[in-house]
Specification:
- The chain has 9 helices and 5 strands, in the order E-H-E-H-E-H-E-H-E-H-H-H-H-H.
- With 211 residues, it is of the alpha/beta class.
- The protein folds into 2 domains: 131 residues, Rossmann fold (3-Layer(aba) Sandwich); 58 residues, Orthogonal Bundle (Arc Repressor Mutant, subunit A), CATH 1.10.10.
- The protein has a 5-stranded parallel sheet with strand order 2-1-3-4-5, sandwiched between helices.
- Strand 1, helix 1 and strand 2 form a beta-alpha-beta unit.
- The longest helix has 33 residues.
- The termini are far apart.
- The relative contact order is 0.10.
- The mean pLDDT is 91.
């Protein structure tokens, strides 16, 4: 279920909770780092590995939701909220923020373990998605200026003649740029290219053939 290539961060101002969770999770050969405050966590160096955050809602500096807001504009580990003072609206708020789970103290250890497993899997997939997107962006950056002009025209469904007219170049020249662009983007078909463009948020203008 778990490997050593991960990190579990625990933020709780109660030392007994921190120490108890560390001992339990390390018994499952998990790598654990604990923090008493949100600021300690934010200031600490983080390993570049799949991770998750077990976060107490009530902290002395941030509450758990404020800490989530502090991290919201950049990639961050999936969060498992824990609290001794939860209610239904708080649970709903946590889940709307994308929390993996919201556990009421005292919670069952196996419930926490299951939530951590889900969180680590989610983070691994998110990291793979981000790596794939970086690779697509790298390919896009390798295109010439004219090839970058051609790409949105192709994914918008324009024929070679129409795209050439849009750019004021010959149809043969457009075809050459199109072929080079497809090769550099590693797109084997128009469908591949459309999927790539969507992932890169390249705008697609639906045009009528023959216009």
């Amino acid at each position: 279920m778990f490997s050593e290539d991960h990190a579990v961060f625990v933020i709780d101002d109660d030392k007994r909770v921190r120490d108890g969770l560390r001992e339990y999770l390390e018994s499952w050969r998990m790598k654990v780092a604990t923090f008493a405050t949100g600021r300690e966590y934010l200031d600490a160096p983080k390993p570049d590995t799949p991770s998750c955050l077990v976060l107490d809602v009530r902290l002395p500096d941030f509450d758990g939701f404020e800490l989530h807001a502090e991290m919201a504009d950049k990639p961050h580990p999936p969060i498992i909220f824990i609290t001794g003072h939860g209610d239904i609206p708080m649970t709903v708020r946590a889940m709307k923020l994308g929390a993996v789970d919201f556990l009421q103290k005292p919670f069952r250890e196996r419930d926490l373990l299951a939530a951590i497993g889900t969180a680590l899997e989610r983070d691994e997939l998110a990291r793979q998605d981000r790596a794939a997107l970086r690779e697509l962006q790298r390919r896009l950056d390798c295109l010439s200026a004219r090839e970058r002009d051609v790409l949105p025209l192709v994914v918008s469904g324009l024929m070679n003649k129409q795209g050439a007219a849009k750019l004021g170049i010959s149809e043969i020249t457009f075809q050459i740029h199109r072929g080079n662009m497809m090769r550099k983007m590693h797109a084997d078909s128009l469908a591949d290219l459309v999927r790539i463009a969507a992932k890169l948020s390249i705008p697609i203008t639906h045009s009528r053939h023959g216009n």
